[in-house]
Write a structure and sequence with these properties.
Order of helices and strands: HEHHHEEEEEEEEH
Number of domains: 1
Distance between the termini: 51 Å
Structural class: alpha+beta
Number of helices: 5
Helix content: 10-25%
Number of strands: 9
Strand content: 15-25%
Length: 268
């Protein structure tokens, strides 16, 4: 047998009749709770996903920087968009393709701009939740981006923000965060998926086991999309010994890229 098809057939025969390792039933342990009875989300979380490369399903492909070789290649992914495709308006679909062709110069992540929501959640960096009854704070490993989630509605935002304006509430054991008042500067991923300043995101964090959450984000933007759409993926509690957010202040890492042509003696 040759190629991937033959290898897949061997695996099918090996595991026929029994569960695949790594797909054991969900833990029946109770999710930890705070003193007020809510699920205790305090801790460091991270996703294992290719969503930051492309929310939609995609094949492996080379980096646009050919000198990076396999180290810069895009890994394949099944996608996290429910229904498979993002429902762009025709003009926006063309804009997305243009973004993808010019990813290296246009993606805000390359320039260390704030990632926005929901992208901050599935960047390849951990994030930490600090929870209290009236307020939650999420601090992201990526450039220490942060969000304050008020559990008491605060009214209209004073301005538009990269990370939006977040108000939260509980629906049973699910934390629901309504995020509005975005600017139009962030992207959803490295594939050029984008939004306008009319973006509205509703996030849902649902405990599944003590060690992972089900994350959903419903995305609405009448300027760009034909209808609301949803992404979903799991988030995992970081269990490493002495787990902590380490410094990733990427502003310093992009200075030469953004301002190198302004210095008298560019870095060799």
């Amino acid at each position: 047998m040759r190629g991937g098809a033959g290898f897949g057939a061997v695996l099918l025969l090996m595991f026929a009749g029994g569960p695949v390792r790594g797909q054991a039933p969900a833990s029946q342990q109770p999710f930890p709770r705070t003193t007020d009875g809510r699920p205790d989300l305090n801790g460091i979380w991270q996703t294992i996903s290719t969503a930051n490369w492309d929310l939609e399903g995609h094949e492996a492909r080379p980096s646009s920087v050919l000198a990076l070789g396999a180290a810069g290649a895009v890994p394949p992914g099944l996608g996290v968009v429910e229904g498979g495709r993002i429902p762009y308006q025709p003009w926006a679909a063309a804009r997305k393709q243009e973004n993808a062709r010019n990813w290296l110069t246009l993606d805000p992540e390359v320039k260390c701009f704030l990632p926005g929501v929901p992208r901050a959640t599935y960047l390849p960096h951990p994030f930490q939740i600090f929870q209290s009854p009236g307020r939650l704070l999420i601090v992201y490993g990526y450039s220490y981006a942060r969000r304050e989630i008020n559990m008491v509605p605060r009214g209209k935002a004073p301005a538009d923000f990269w990370m939006g304006w977040s108000d939260g509430h509980w629906e049973g054991d699910t934390l629901v965060i309504d995020v509005t008042s975005f600017n139009d500067q962030s992207w959803f991923d490295r594939a050029g998926n984008f939004h306008s300043d009319q973006l509205h995101v509703i996030e849902r964090y649902t405990p599944v086991t003590p060690y992972h959450l089900a994350y959903e984000a419903t995305i609405e933007d009448p300027k760009v999309f034909t209808r609301p759409w949803k992404i979903s993926l799991p988030l995992y509690r970081v269990m490493d010994k002495n787990a902590q957010l380490l410094e990733f202040k990427c502003v310093e890492l992009t200075e030469e890229l953004l301002y190198g042509d302004l210095v008298k003696k560019p870095r060799p």
